[in-house]
Design brief:
This protein is an alpha/beta fold and 308 residues long. It is 36% helix and 20% strand. It folds into 2 domains: 12-58 and 231-273; 59-210, no CATH class. Helix 1 (16-57) runs antiparallel to helix 3 (230-259) and helix 3 (230-259) packs parallel to helix 4 (266-284). It is elongated and about 130 Å long. The two termini are 35 Å apart.
C-alpha cells in the first residue's frame, strides 16, 4: 500500500548534463532533417531539368538520325534525350523481343522491341525500336498476338532514349527486363552476333512509321511531366529542423520560467508547486530543538506531565 508520499515522483529541475544532452539531440535531429531536405531539394531540381528537357525535345522537329548518332557505338548526348529523329531502313522482324513488367496507363502488358537496320551515309547501324504496347494475353505469360511491323524499307520517326542499364533479373525466352541493346539482341532467336560492330548505345521510342503497319500497336504515352512532391517535402523537412531547435528552446524557457515563479503552463505550475511543497514540508518537519522554548511552551509541558 502507498504511504501517501510522493517520493521521487516530483521531478526537480534538469541538470546541466541533461540540458546538454537534449541540446545535442536537438542539433543532431535538426541536422538530419536538413540533410533530408537538401536531398529532396536536389531531387526537385533534377526533376525540373528532366521536365524542361522533355518539353524542349518532345515536340521539336525531327532531324536525321546521323546528326546525333553518327555511327556504331555512338551514344545519345544528355541534351538530345527525347529528340525526334528520322531513320530509314528495315525492321529485323525475326529478332522481335518483348519487354516485360512495364505497364502503360495502369495496364499490364509488354513493349514490342524490334531491331532496326538503319542506313546512314557510308555505313549502317542497328538500333532497337520500341514500337508500342500490347496487353497481357489470356494466360498472362505473353500477349495473345504481336502485330508485325511494316516490311521492306520503312521510314521511322522516333524519340531517342539512352540505353537502359542491363537488368540482372532473368526473363523467359524472347523477353527482357530492360531496354539494353545488348540484352535485347541476345534475347532474339539467333542471338546478337549478326549485329556485332553495328550497334549504338541508344534506342528509339516510336512516334510514326511509313508505310503504316497492317495492325498498329497501342502508342507509347508522352513522358510524365509531373514534378512530384519533392519541393514540398524539402520545405517540410526544414520545418521539422526548425521545430527541433525551437522545441528545445521552448522547453528551456518554460522550465526556467517555472522555477522563477512565472506562470508559463499548467505543467510548469505543477512542477513549481511540487518543488514548493517539498520545501514547506522540510520546514514543517524541522525539530523543535532548533529554537528556544518559550514560557508558554514550558507551562504546556508541565500541564501535560500532571495529566499523565
Amino acid at each position: 500500500m502507498s504511504d501517501g508520499t510522493t517520493g521521487d515522483e516530483s521531478r526537480g529541475p534538469r541538470t546541466t548534463r541533461q540540458w546538454v544532452t537534449l541540446a545535442v539531440a536537438a542539433v543532431v535531429l535538426a541536422a538530419l532533417c536538413l540533410v533530408a531536405g537538401r536531398w529532396q531539394w536536389n531531387r526537385a531540381e533534377s526533376r525540373d531539368a528532366e521536365i524542361d528537357l522533355v518539353n524542349a525535345n518532345w515536340s521539336a522537329p525531327a532531324v536525321p538520325v546521323d546528326e546525333i548518332l553518327d555511327g556504331p557505338d555512338a551514344v545519345v548526348p544528355g541534351s538530345e534525350i527525347w529528340q525526334r529523329v528520322e531513320i530509314e531502313g528495315e525492321y529485323v522482324t525475326d529478332a522481335t523481343v518483348l519487354l516485360r513488367n512495364r505497364p502503360v496507363g495502369g495496364r499490364g502488358g509488354y513493349h514490342v522491341l524490334v531491331p532496326f537496320e538503319a542506313r546512314l551515309p557510308g555505313q549502317d547501324i542497328v538500333i532497337v525500336i520500341d514500337r508500342g504496347f500490347v496487353p497481357l494475353g489470356t494466360d498472362g505469360s505473353r500477349p495473345d498476338a504481336v502485330p508485325a511491323p511494316p516490311s521492306g524499307t520503312v521510314t521511322v520517326v522516333a524519340s531517342l532514349r539512352a540505353d537502359e542499364p542491363a537488368a540482372d533479373r532473368d526473363a523467359p525466352p524472347g523477353q527482357v527486363q530492360a531496354i539494353s541493346t545488348e540484352q535485347v539482341l541476345a534475347a532474339g532467336p539467333d542471338g546478337g552476333a549478326w549485329a556485332e560492330g553495328r550497334t549504338v548505345g541508344a534506342y528509339g521510342a516510336l512516334r510514326t512509321e511509313q508505310p503504316a503497319p497492317e495492325t498498329a500497336l497501342a502508342a507509347l504515352p508522352k513522358p510524365d511531366t509531373d514534378p512530384g512532391s519533392h519541393l514540398s517535402y524539402a520545405f517540410q523537412w526544414v520545418i521539422f529542423a526548425i521545430g527541433a531547435i525551437g522545441g528545445y528552446i521552448l522547453l528551456w524557457r518554460r522550465e526556467r520560467g517555472a522555477l522563477r515563479g512565472e506562470t508559463v503552463s499548467a505543467g510548469d505550475l505543477l512542477l513549481a508547486s511540487g518543488d514548493q511543497a517539498d520545501a514547506d514540508g522540510v520546514r514543517a518537519r524541522r525539530p523543535a530543538r532548533d529554537r528556544r522554548p518559550t514560557p508558554e511552551d514550558e507551562e504546556d509541558a508541565l500541564i501535560e506531565a500532571q495529566l499523565r
